[in-house]
């Protein structure tokens, strides 16, 4: 049993290391592409929707020194986009810049938030064979010591299995000694409730933890998170 667990950890480490290497090569400007990608895990036509949570006036959670999550979410999403496209996957982003995607008629902050969420839902539901990976940062100011990445799934199959796979990769990379369990998400998250495709929401860390908030801004940590998320996706199998 111990030997099997060691082999399993080694395989995960190799998979995440390869994803990290590919991301590093991509970000440093090398243009070589792999001749083949092992283990086709998605059906033809699957679109991976990368959602950078919040944006614009809605910054989301905020670190103790005033840094909102919206910019961090976008940085992670753009790195994930680069790696997935490099691996030959079809990718769509809900937002590509700092601004949210609310409609022009929205005026108040509340109206902009509602409009933004409805537009994201419409964008995702219009895509056939979509899978959502929504990127966020967590916060629990009343418990500033809490840290680590956790994954949540919507009710659409096979989101729960995908969330577990991504959580396992995160536990073996950024959550070592602080392992967490993937969970189903409740009805309180509008986007996850109203999309019709499988979706997972990745809380990459806690901005309420000062040390982790600093770490989440670092490109190397963002690359580790992206490598783990992509490795978890690739390891999941056909969906």
Automatic annotation (TrEMBL):
Keywords: Hydrolase. CDD domains: MurNAc-LAA (cd02696). It comes from the Bacteria. Pfam families: Amidase_3. Signal peptide: none annotated. Residues 121-234 form the MurNAc-LAA domain. GO terms for biological process: peptidoglycan catabolic process. One of its GO terms (molecular function) is N-acetylmuramoyl-L-alanine amidase activity. InterPro entries: MurNAc-LAA_cat, N-acetylmuramoyl_amidase_3. One of its GO terms (cellular component) is outer membrane-bounded periplasmic space. This is N-acetylmuramoyl-L-alanine amidase CwlD. The lineage of its organism: Bacteria, Bacillati, Bacillota, Clostridia, Eubacteriales. The gene is cwlD.
